[in-house]
Amino acid sequence: MYIAIRSKSDNSQALEAARGHSPNIEIVGPRMLIFDITGSAERKARRLAEEIFSEGAYKAIGVSDNAAAALMLARHREGVSFATAEDPKELEEIPVDALDADREFRELMDAWGIVTLGEFRELPEDDMVERFGLEIIPHREAASGTAYRAPGWNVRDNNFLWSRRLDGEIKTIEPLHFILSAGVRQVFENLSYTGLSTQTANIILSGRGGRKEYKVRLVFPVLNEKIWLRQIVSKVEQDPPEFGIECVEAEFESCRPRVVQNNLYSGAVLEPENLDLVVSKLKKVVGVKDIGVPRLRDSWSRPFSMTENLSPLTREFDEKAGEVVFAAYYRYPKPVRARIAFENGMPRVISIKGKRQMIRTAAGPWRADAEWHRADVFARDEWDVETESGAVYRVVVNGPGEGMIEGGFD
Amino acid sequence: MIAKGVAKLREFAELRQAERVLTGVAPFDRLNGGLIRGGICELTGAEGSGKRGLVFSMIANLTRSNNICAVVDASDSFDPPSAEKSGVKLDKILWVKCGGDPKKAVLSTDYLIQSGLFGAIWLDLSLAEKDFLDRMPSSYWFRFKVGLKDTPAVLLVTLEETRLRSASHQSVRVEKEASEWTGESGFKVMRGSSVKLEMRKPISMTNEQMSLTNEEG
């Protein structure tokens, strides 16, 4: 038995309802899906349809032992409709215009006063074939609820599927990109009809010479064709199949879309290969030792370092930061020489790169020393000074009137 | 002429409808409605105005909610201990030191945007040479703008003066109003400062006040 559901808005609720009863689901359009409950008795199928309809989110539900008939009932009737080959009554009440026929057929039916599918069925078949040719047979079958419709299940468990068997072999990336683009677009349309997104995909390329599977996982759920195609093609290019491709399959695991309030996105997950690729490109720009994850050290003279190991980036956090905003310290890559004029032991004027400024407030000296056990013991006098422009600098005084600005507060 | 005006109006309409994300810094969120996903936020202010403190707080919120952020340190001025004090999870930071070469910073930012891996990218050009910034073609900024479109990443750019013009989606001016010191004579300690946030783009008549603190939590 098949149940076809026409929803009022999108397919999200219908999909939830279908998932509870069948592994075989096909999303047919933005507000239409069909699922298979083969093995269920007619009475049970009807009861199930009525239960689903009572949720209130649907315009019509069609139940039939034929998929095409179930869809026709859902498209052209309201409420719950039921029809089988033995009991086609509700199907017969559907207007004959529901058939996907040409204008000549419709005009003729109109001229003959044939209004419903039931009336159309009563016309002699031989005469219809003589008049319209063999093309009329599928319409007859549709009207009697026996039309064949190939199953196109495109939702399995949580996954949305697409596949394409090619007419010939392809061995280059450009035609593959084109084919994948069509597939990804189709899957994303179906996902969008259900209000879901995706973060993980399995792409399978197969041919006479073998089969290769690629798993792609993004850092966030997204339905952007461009982003997905870029990642998929990059994966295939890194490890291309060594055979001609004759079949392309894609399976996208559905998930809830991103959370947008208070987070840019939830549950960021790294693709280690892609991060390595980006970091290796950056190393060529800035140098091997100038990219990494910052690390704090328990040392006054060198309070931090950088590690090339990127695995800390995969750690997961789910915390809220406090609401206090701290003044940030910044460093000059090379300390800037300054001349300082003191008055009564307090700095009063500072000259930086020839520009003279009054010092509004000064705090210090703060004696900082460390690593007494080393020959090059770290010891110096530090001042925090606020100039008339409002900038606050950390100055190390290393001689009468001489100082080095190491950084400041911003 | 009319077509240009219509295009501009459409751009602003899209800006209003763009997806926004709260940063967790209340004055900034009240002023702006948060950051624009797939957009560029320019933060300008003089040295010591407080723009870095603001960025640290934004990044703290992002890293704590599991976002990976990249710091493109054009002048090697990033201070990890200060970032950690502001709440930044250093484990979620990719630090790119550019050795004082702003060209490397711009190229690195381009690679980071194209990678699609990061929630936020902070390009710190606060101490970059003025000559380079004056000569930098605006096409670089538009390239970033196009690269970010339809991605969830945010590009934060800190500068002394505004330079991005129409390439940025948001531009905020940070001005220090006063610093707060306590203590006597040389035994003073800077407790914090009060800062004014002024929305420059989109144009707004409202400002917000923000306090920066220098005290431990």
Lateral strand order in the biggest sheet of chain B:
5-4-6-7-3-8-9-10
Gap from first CA to last CA of chain B: 55 Å
Low-confidence residue ranges of chain B: none
Number of helices of chain A: 11
Number of domains of chain A: 4
Radius of gyration based on Cα positions of chain B: 17 Å
- The total of helices of chain B stands at 7
The CATH class designation of the largest domain in chain A is Alpha Beta
Order of helices and strands of chain B: HEHEEHEHEHEHHEEEE
- Mean pLDDT across all residues of chain A, rounded? 84
The greatest inter-chain interface is formed by: A-B, 81 and 88 residues
Which stretches of chain A are poorly predicted, pLDDT < 50 over at least 5 residues? 260-273
Q: What is the helical fraction of chain B, as a range of percent?
A: 25-40%
The radius of gyration over CA of chain A amounts to 36 Å
In short:
The complex is a heterodimer of chains A (410) and B (217). Chain A is 28% helix and 36% strand.
Secondary structure: elements and pairs:
The complex is a heterodimer of chains A (410) and B (217).
Chain A: E1 2-7, H1 12-19, E2 25-29, E3 32-36, H2 42-53, E4 58-64, H3 67-76, E5 79-83, H4 89-92, H5 103-112, H6 117-121, H7 125-132, H8 136-144, E6 155-156, E7 159-170, H9 173-193, E8 197-207, E9 210-217, H10 225-238, E10 245-255, H11 272-286, E11 291-296, E12 304-307, E13 325-326, E14 329-343, E15 346-352, E16 355-370, E17 378-387, E18 392-399, E19 402-409
Parallel strand pairs in A: 4-5
Antiparallel strand pairs in A: 1-3, 1-4, 2-3, 6-7, 7-10, 8-9, 8-10, 11-12, 14-15, 14-19, 15-16, 16-17, 17-18, 18-19
Helix pairs in contact in A: 9-10
Chain B: H1 2-17, E1 20-21, H2 26-32, E2 35-36, E3 40-44, H3 51-64, E4 69-73, H4 80-85, E5 93-97, H5 102-115, E6 120-124, H6 130-135, H7 138-148, E7 154-159, E8 170-182, E9 189-201, E10 207-213
Parallel strand pairs in B: 3-7, 3-8, 4-5, 4-6, 6-7
Antiparallel strand pairs in B: 1-2, 8-9, 9-10
Helix pairs in contact in B: 5-7
